[in-house]
C-alpha cells in the first residue's frame, strides 16, 4: 500500500493533479518548467486515465524513470473491470476509450493496466526533512504513520474530509507535514491546514496544476 521516495535522489520534484488523458497538456507544462527527465521527478496524485484525449500515452508514463504515481479510483475501476469482466461502471465513468483502440493498442493498454495493479495507494516523499504524503482522495485517519493499515476504498474515493474543509471545518492531519490529494475537480487549488487539493479539472477545461516541492 505504501511507497517511500527520498528527495535527495532528484534535483527538482513536482506534484501534478489528475491527468485524465491530458498527455499533451502535461508535456507542454513540463517544457515550460524546463523539466529535465535525467534529474527531475514528477509525481501524480492518480487518475492517469479516462475522459481525456490520450489515456494510452498517459499510461505509458508508467515506464518512465522520472514519473511516479499513486493509484487513482479510475485506475482501480479499470483493474476491476478487467479482473471481473464487467466493463459497465468503467465505461460509464470515461473508460470507453479502451474499446476504441486497435488490437495492438489494447494490448499495450492491458500491459500498463496490469502495472496499475501494483501501484501504491500512498507515497511518502521526504524533502529536506519535510514529510509529504501523496494519495488520491484522502488519508483516512487522524494521524499518518508509515505502513499504517487504512481503508483502501477511502483512500481512492472519500470526499468527506474535503467537504468539511470547504465549509471551514476540519483539522490538521498529524504525523506528516503536507498531504497532497486530487480526485475532486476544483476551480483552483485548495489548501487547508496541512492538506492540499490539486485536481483543478484539466480534463474539463481547467488548469493542470503542478506544484514544485523541491
UniProtKB/TrEMBL annotation:
Keywords recorded for this protein, A-Z: Hydrolase
EC number: 3.1.3.16
GO molecular function, one term: protein serine/threonine phosphatase activity
Domain Serine/threonine specific protein phosphatases: 70-75
Keyword GTP-binding attached: no
EC category: hydrolase
InterPro entries to which the protein is assigned, alphabetical: Ap4A_hydrolase (IPR050126), Calcineurin-like_PHP (IPR004843), Metallo-depent_PP-like (IPR029052), Ser/Thr-sp_prot-phosphatase (IPR006186)
Keyword Hydrolase on entry: yes
Protein known as: Protein-serine/threonine phosphatase
Organism: Kosakonia calanthes
Designated gene of the protein: pphA
Amino acid at each position: 500500500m505504501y511507497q517511500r521516495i527520498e528527495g535527495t535522489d532528484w534535483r527538482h520534484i513536482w506534484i501534478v493533479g489528475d491527468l485524465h488523458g491530458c498527455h499533451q497538456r502535461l508535456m507542454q507544462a513540463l517544457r515550460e518548467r524546463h523539466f529535465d527527465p535525467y534529474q527531475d521527478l514528477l509525481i501524480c496524485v492518480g487518475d492517469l486515465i479516462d475522459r481525456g484525449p490520450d489515456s494510452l500515452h498517459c499510461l505509458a508514463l508508467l515506464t518512465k524513470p522520472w514519473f511516479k504515481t499513486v493509484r487513482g479510483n479510475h485506475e482501480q475501476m479499470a483493474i476491476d473491470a478487467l479482473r471481473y469482466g464487467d466493463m459497465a461502471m468503467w465505461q460509464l465513468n470515461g473508460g470507453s476509450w479502451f474499446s476504441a483502440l486497435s488490437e495492438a493498442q489494447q494490448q499495450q493498454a492491458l500491459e500498463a493496466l496490469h502495472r496499475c495493479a501494483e501501484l501504491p495507494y500512498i507515497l511518502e516523499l521526504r524533502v529536506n526533512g519535510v514529510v509529504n504524503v501523496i494519495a488520491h482522495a484522502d488519508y483516512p485517519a487522524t494521524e499518518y504513520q508509515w505502513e499504517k493499515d487504512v481503508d483502501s476504498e477511502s483512500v481512492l474515493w472519500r470526499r468527506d474530509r474535503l467537504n468539511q474543509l470547504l465549509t471551514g471545518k476540519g483539522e490538521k492531519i498529524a504525523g506528516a507535514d503536507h498531504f497532497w490529494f486530487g480526485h475532486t475537480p476544483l476551480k483552483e487549488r485548495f489548501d487547508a491546514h496541512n492538506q492540499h487539493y490539486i485536481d483543478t479539472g484539466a480534463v474539463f477545461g481547467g488548469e493542470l496544476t503542478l506544484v514544485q516541492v523541491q
